[in-house]
Amino acid sequence: MEDQLEGLVVLFTEFYYWVTIVFMFLIHLGFMMYEAGYARRKNVQHTVLKNVLLIPLVTITFFFFGWWIYNSSITTGPFLYGGFEFTSLDNGIPWNELMAPNMQDRINGVFWAAFLLFSWTAASIVSGALIERARIAGFLIIAVMIGSVTWIIDAAWGWHPAGWMVQIMGYHDAYASGVIHAIAGGTALGALIVLGPRIGKFGPGGLIRRILPHNIWMTCLGLFMIYTGFWGFYVACNIPMFNIGTDDAPFFSATNIYLMPTTLSAITFNFLTSLAGGLLAGYLISRGDLFWTFSGGLAGIIAASAGNDLYHPMLAFVVAMVGTSIAYVLHNWVERRFKIDDVVGAVAVHGYAGAFGVIIAGFLLWGYPAAAPVEEGIAWFTTSEGFPMINPIGNTLGALIMFGVLGFIPGYLMARLVNAFGLLRVPASVEAAGLDAHDVGDVYPYLPQRDTLFEVAEREAALDAVRAGNGRGETRKETVR
Amino acid sequence: MTTLGFSTGLDSFTNPSEIGPLYPFVGAEWLFVLVAVILWLLWHVAQIRLENRDNARAVDTYERIGLDRVMFYGGSADVPSDEEWERREEQRRRVATPSAGERSSELDDPSEPRLPPVPPGRAE
User: Fold this and answer.
1) A to B CB pairs, distance under 8 Å
2) Count of domains forming chain B
3) Is the N or the C terminus of chain A less surrounded, counting Cβ atoms within 10 Å?
């Protein structure tokens, strides 16, 4: 860095990403509080442990192979376009000198870490859906899959200026409605189908029991913390200082992940208005439910995120309201129709709202350049200057790839695999007694407690399940409904 | 001042533009990664065994003392000893079916439902 301007840009960029990482830590503080608050008293410690252990495991596996996937030629698309030449940029190989403290590189570590925090987020989203009956072992394997493999493949395909989905399909998803949220929601849904509902959640005659969280206040505080961390997430999706002009006439700006221009001011407008839209819609659609009002705020941001680099703030507001409403309605319909017990509504808030956000961005940003072309003549639709063009077809197919191909299918298959080894679900009697009941005991040992109506019903269902002979790690949803 | 003539990495920072890796044992990165991968896989194996053992022990306990008893007390950590449980059960039986002359004031209302013994620390 002998040139002063270059030195300034590099050091600013290094510091910029470092700050985003610290902010994004708050997402995980929030996720932990959110899950712990939503768990019943007898499952709190297990829930916290399950959530926090994904952090070290996704960290080391993202070091081993996650970052390599993003920097390898998977970007240009094995099976679809490009070749099977698994060449990799040096900074993706775990034993390369750039994957360590190095005076000649100041960006790789913070960029790796920013992506790593996205990885934690993807895995944490799945975590919330599975609480109160999933085994730690099975969940952690699924967490490594989404955190260090599947989501980063989708990022290489659709969240990289040279990604084949961007270059061919014109896919646009600036703040990860699809590449983080839809894939995580899809993965959670696939895993939930195999995992089954909590004992007693569904009763005879279509009865759906409401299982109350032990501390809704803590859950809401956790969601507020996630909003706060989301600021870091948003700015980490940008390149802070990039010459979008020419060498002769430089024009420095922030860009989105595709190196197309936006501003920090733009995403500040749109983050706040989409949060507002989500909160207001969440309140109305849930008829004043506290949890869904807060979850609506998150769903609103997620629904607008795909296009929040370019939307008008009021457009972001409306998109957020619509996305939140769709997520809430779909959540209840899927729960009723398919008996899916998504404890914290993760599939809805992240999966449905995220997929909606990607699809609607294809319509609302139709005709915008998606990225600079890396090869002429490969994009389905191009702008007048030959840039791949954002379009509804590309983004709709992209949403299907994110939610379905890279989310739901791997989630379902991996859950089947770990279930085959008995690692997915705790035994029925352990679930009924509470995941904290053996060894660790009550999370609030000095506070009195009393059984809820649900626990009485759960006890009956659990005793039936145990009498049926499946008390030892063989719980099946058919026997516990 | 003398040195021991040995360094695990750098011994000078005077030419920063010529410095690359800052860490010791340059060239052994593959070994660090290999060891870390092995530890990662072993961790999963150990965690699965630990969790299997915990669950099996819990199921055995619940089968032995009864799930209802465990659930009522909020977990095996609070479950009373067999002797204590028997004593409480006996108390409950006596309250529920008192012999002549043993009617307590709490059974004055015959419609009062049978109540299980109150575990320590629980509100009624």
Assistant:
1) 136
2) 2
3) N
